[in-house]
Amino acid sequence: MRFLHNSLGLSSLCSHFLSFLCTSTSKPYQVIHHPALPPSYPLAVRNPYLSAWMPSNRVQQLPYADSQFWAGQELGWAVIVRVEGQAYSLMGVSDLNSSDILPAEVRRAEFTATHSLFDLKAGGIAIRLDFFSPVSPSNYLRQSLPFSYLTVTVTECWGEEVQIYSDIDGRWTGRGNEIMHEFEEYDGLVFHELSVQDAVTYAEEDDMALWGKAILASRPNDFSTVSASAGHQKTVRNRFAEVGALSGPVASVTFAVGYERKEAINYLGDAYTGYYRARYPTTHEALSFFLDDYGEALSESVDFDNEMTSFSTAAAGQKYADILALSTRQAYGGIDLTIPGDSLDTDNVLAFIKELSSDGNANTIDVIMPAFPVYWVLDPNWIRLLLEPLMQYLAADRWTLPYAIHDIGSHYPNATGHDDQKAEPMPIEESGNLLILALAYVQATGDRHWATEYLHIFQKYADYLVENGIDIANQLSSNDAAGPLPNETNLAIKAAIGIKAFGVLSDLDEYSNIADDHGELFFNQGLGTDDAHKMSNDFFSSVRGEYGVPLDHRQDWAKSDWNMWLAATFDPATRDEFIDDLWAFMTNGKHTWPFSDRYVASSAYGNEPGIPILCRARPTVGGHFALLALKGPASFQAFSSNVSQSDQTLRSKGVEL
Predict the structure, then answer these.
(1) Residue 169 carries which DSSP code?
(2) What percent of the chain has pLDDT over 90?
(3) Residues 92, 199: one domain?
(4) Domain check: are 378 and 260 in the same one?
(5) Which region is the signal sequence (predicted)?
(6) 540-558 tens-digit pLDDT
């Protein structure tokens, strides 16, 4: 069935009888944002192609508002409730003025590390929308599922009959027309699938995948009866508003929304698929497990959110806790966790990360590096999972230059290497990063076998740093938008640390000694900076702009991950200045992108401070965890490693989790 701007409807009838009466008010209600006002609320954020957000300036008018893909495209996603025969929009009905549907009143918006919650009043009832994207990195099954939850809960009512409806439209596929629709039902599970007709595998359009399927699913529970329909958006919604039912049987007040790609990644010419397919190879099996897993995933998320708040507040205060809560889903929302599509071999797990908002490279080393504090804190095995696609390629001798490669593919999801040797050149940056990351992984996990396997590759890059790490040629560092510079102190220090990292990895004292000599040269003999710590505290306070410290003297913009890495090295007073500035940028109400890690920090060059530049939704916000990383690796392992009973069964069968 082919149609234009499909609307998929799932409704759920559920009556709740509680011991209090809902009251109404005629005054407009100013939405409360807790714990702070973010630029955008994550709704369904799981991987580069399932990334739906609600700009904060739309929350006051949430009943009318469309959600957005991370790159800014509009996504049709509506939620409607019918109370005693009157329909109210909770979200996403832009044409309310031409329908019989009334807008609900938005009262409160909240975000945690894993949830975004909106409280509304509709008629005589109060309702909560809970958008829940699990973050469970040690549970590979749960983390790899390309779905997110929406739970609609009646929190206050007095015996009213309540019916709940949700729909998505064809824009979730990356196209607004030429859309194919399928409807399936298995043992009570029902789901709609939307896809682009004749899409080319691995094809993108404006960063949206075209070759997969957008999915809306649900299932009955003990408190609901349901119905479903597909058709023109306005027709389906009006039918629900008028009669409160759709055509055909369906599901409940917890919905699953997702975007599934059987061929997830093209890795060196082989199709890699989601890790979850080792256990649940079909869509209906995966969706069924996802909905079955809701209770355990929710329980884990509550513990996770509470511990995140507790740890981050203790580390650097409430503002720091707010920053990490908003960063968490985004830090994992640029990653696919995969296995080979042909063998479904769970001994060959690879993680692929997209360089969002810039050129879309796959597994860019200088994206993994700034982001790695979040992996260090939650599960350091992800450092290896992200490096392994690069290491397998390098071990095959397909990259012949003497320094480390920049990435494993020019544009995601094509991780096909650079046999032409034309990856973006960052010789010192990437060679140093790779060695530092390798040592971080080994120190966090004790897995020296992995490092030994690739020691000859690491030595090649350590030798390059030894030969080229002092009088450094004109070249790029990680923030390539700033342009190249000769003799960057930052790169010289990174080279010295990279050499030292290899010395520790290999137990070859000569490398450690060379690194120590470089450090002596830079910090004592050459620059006279033996009091570097005090100098840094004083200097960075002196160059602080309205929203923090610009990256260097050539521009007025700051990098949030770099600032938090720096903050972790400072005394509390200077550290708190950096946190205050990033929190002020995050909450200033001047912008509505998913958390941007690059923004105007100073008015020194005539630009308005507090405005983001280019970067949206990048996983580099994992660098915001740098202060928490001081607590040591796997600080959250107790929660992130919780596994469901199904996963325990899978492990007993020899499947790595």
Answers:
(1) B
(2) 75
(3) yes
(4) no
(5) 1-19
(6) 888 999 999 998 888 899 9
Residue 31 DSSP one-character state? P
Do 367 and 267 lie in one domain? The reply is no
Rounded to the nearest 10 degrees, what angle do helices 427-445 and 365-378 cross at? 20
Residues 553 and 142: their CA atoms lie apart, in Å, by 44
Answer whether residue 302 is part of any domain.
no
Alpha carbons 193 and 231: distance in angstroms, whole number: 13
The answer to whether 345 touches 606, Cβ cutoff 8 Å, is no
Q: Could you tell me if 256 and 389 lie in one domain?
A: no
Range of the domain at 119: 2-291
Statement to judge: residues 265 and 396 lie in one domain: no
| Angle 592-597-603 from CA coordinates, rounded to 5° | 80
Cα–Cα nearest to 116, from 52, 178, 64, 171: 52
Q: Cα 626 from chain centroid? A: 17
Cα–Cα dist 97/228, whole Å:
25
**CA 260 to chain CA mean position, Å:** 16
Distances (CA, A) of 351 to 268, 413, 415: 14, 12, 11
The phi and psi torsions of 80 (rounded to 5 degrees) equal: -130, 145
H or E element in which residue 12 lies: strand 6-13
* Structural domain count of the chain: 2
Same domain, 380 and 275: no
Closest to 138 measured CA to CA, from 643, 635, 625: 643
Q: Cα–Cα distances in Å, from 69 out to 207, 368, 615? A: 9, 23, 14
Question: Do residues 265 and 364 both lie within one domain?
Answer: no
Indicate whether 430 belongs to any domain.
Answer: yes
